[in-house]
Design brief:
4-stranded antiparallel sheet; Rossmann fold; alpha/beta; globular; 32% helix; 270 residues
Length: 270
């Protein structure tokens, strides 16, 4: 469905992605892992045609996206079929009410049932009771769901989601993971939360701190690959302090009392 060839990007000379090659087939559920600053958001924006690459290209069904977007017919089709949910949903919300926000896309594409579609998707994501409210009055998690509904209302073929659970509480995060897995769309979900990786997709892409693609494979396997996790800054090491219950450090008893050691942690994965 979509592919990249030696895709490279930088911001004012600072590398953000380095020569990324990948292919995504229709129907795949893919999780994109990496630490903050590795290039996850940049990659999603390039796939969505929001950013222009420094070199390389993005291909959508064999057509170069950044060339095709100059043509009205391709641009309209691509914008309807490929949806990007920003990490900060506020960046994509600008209408007066939730209903108008969700219905905006269908109206732009001339769909006669825009309001009906909007109400149906609002119900699917639990927003029916806030349709008349302004999006900015909602919680961060609700705004994220408004953004998601405003994409799904167009029945896209490919969804690119940037940290979609970041503003959600644990219960809502669990609901969203199940909801996404039931969608027929091809999904690419970016996160640095290892505990969600295998739940969000069977295939896992990992970006390293050097902005290269360092893993493309099974989502469960990557959680056991310490070398990959270290290169991606997804595993950390810190000190622990333990107190022996049968000792008294203050009494000068060596080997007892507080004990300090360090080891690697992947808390999110565990």
């Amino acid at each position: 469905m979509i592919a990249t060839e030696r895709l490279t990007h930088d911001f004012d000379g600072c590398p953000s992605l380095a020569a990324i090659d990948l292919r995504l087939e229709a129907g795949q559920k893919v999780v994109l892992l990496g630490s903050n600053g590795c290039g996850k958001s940049t990659l999603l924006k390039l796939l969505a045609g929001v950013l222009q690459p420094v070199s390389g290209r993005v291909l959508y069904e064999g057509r170069c996206v950044h060339e095709g977007l100059r043509e009205r017919a391709f641009r309209r089709r691509f914008r309807r079929e490929v949806g990007l949910l920003f990490q900060q949903a506020d960046a994509m919300l600008f209408n007066a009410t939730v209903l108008e926000e969700i219905a905006f896309g269908p109206r732009q594409h001339g769909l006669a049932d825009a309001d009906e579609r909007a109400r149906a998707w609002a119900a699917r994501v639990g927003l029916s009771n806030v349709l008349d409210r302004a999006p900015w009055t909602l919680s961060a998690g609700q705004r994220q769901l408004v953004g998601l509904a405003s994409l799904l209302v167009l029945d896209p073929r490919l969804l690119l989601l940037d940290e979609p659970t970041a503003a959600l509480d644990p219960r809502s995060s669990g609901w969203l993971v199940d909801f996404l897995q039931d969608l027929p769309q091809t999904l690419v979900v970016a996160t640095h939360n290892l505990s969600l990786a295998s739940e969000l997709g069977r295939r896992c892409l990992v970006l390293g701190e050097d902005h290269t693609l360092i893993h493309d494979g099974d989502a469960l396997a990557v959680g056991r690959d310490r070398e990959v996790l270290l290169r991606a800054n997804l595993v950390h090491r810190h000190r622990h302090r333990h107190r022996h219950e049968d000792g008294d450090a203050d009494a000068g008893d060596p080997g007892k009392g507080p004990h300090e050691h360090s080891h690697f942690h992947t808390h999110d994965w565990e």
